[in-house]
């Protein structure tokens, strides 16, 4: 009988690795919305990009990580927005955030999820 009851399924937040395309030796030149120093890992740079909307109200579409300098540069544009600025840089790792659109929809999605749960009697 319990199996006939509708269930709400909560989707977990995307992990950094699921959201980013990584390309070594590339950079989006001249687009710097935020420069962060002392970033120890590529994953921490990805996380900074993911968290930028929540922490500083900036959408991060891409980031560039410089491992030797431990520097992460966040950008509000990506190579699709500015293909002419996407160039070679052997020291940079380009990170494109595929989840930035979801960041804008989080509140709307949460509201719609609540409404759907109410409709099926879960709330």
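^ structure tokens above, recovered residues below v
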């Amino acid at each position: 009988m319990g199996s006939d009851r509708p269930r709400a399924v909560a989707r977990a937040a995307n992990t950094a690795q699921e959201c980013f395309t990584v390309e070594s030796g590339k950079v989006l030149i001249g687009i710097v919305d935020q420069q962060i120093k002392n970033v120890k890992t590529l994953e921490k740079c990805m996380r900074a990009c993911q968290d930028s909307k929540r922490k500083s109200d900036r959408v991060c579409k891409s980031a560039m990580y410089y491992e030797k300098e431990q520097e992460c540069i966040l950008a509000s544009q990506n190579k699709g927005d500015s293909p002419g600025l996407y160039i070679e840089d052997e020291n940079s790792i380009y990170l494109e955030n595929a989840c930035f659109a979801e960041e804008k929809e989080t509140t709307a999605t949460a509201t719609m999820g609540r409404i759907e749960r109410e409709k099926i009697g879960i709330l």
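Helices lie at 16-19, 42-56, 100-119.
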